[in-house]
Amino acid sequence: MSIRLGRQATRHLTHAGLVLSARRGRRLQFAGAMVVLAALAIGAAGSYVYWSRNPLGGQQLAAALHEKQQLQQRLDQSLMTLRLTEARGQELERQIDALNQRLRECQEELTFFRQAKDGKRPSSS
Question: Does residue 75 lie in a domain region?
Fold first, then answer.
């Protein structure tokens, strides 16, 4: 069995639902947009007040950033100089070791020649 609804009832239900949802949605959209605009305005005003009272203005901030970059460059240069100095120190230590070895060899030769001159028999060590 089919239940027939009259045209009047169907149209009334449909019409009432569409009208109520459309009006409420527009009001909520408008209210939401107004809340967002109010929040943006408050945020902009707060930002303006903060930056106008901030002791470090834009120019001072830029100067501090520039100084930081200069200090970073000096630090990098100092680190490179330190590495170079360490490398030179290691090279000098190697040269000193080589010179000490050569000095020992020369002292052994000198001892050998002195013993040969005195007529002593060189001892083997």
Answer: yes
pLDDT digits (tens, 9 = 90+) for 40-50: 999 999 888 88
**What's the pLDDT tens digit per position in 57-113?**
667 778 888 999 999 999 999 999 999 999 999 999 999 999 999 999 999 999 999
Q: Would you give the distance in Å from CA 60 to the centre of its chain?
A: 22
* 38 within some domain: yes
> Do residue 48 and residue 87 come from a single domain?
no
Query: pTM here?
Result: 0.43
Are 73 and 112 in the same domain?
yes
How many structural domains does the chain have?
A: 2
- Domain of 108? 64-125
Q: What is the 3-state secondary structure (H, E, C) of the chain?
A: CCCCCCHHHHHHHHHHHHHHHHHHHHHHHHHHHHHHHHHHHHHHHHHHHHHHHCCCCHHHHHHHHHHHHHHHHHHHHHHHHHHHHHHHHHHHHHHHHHHHHHHHHHHHHHHHHHHHHHCCCCCCC
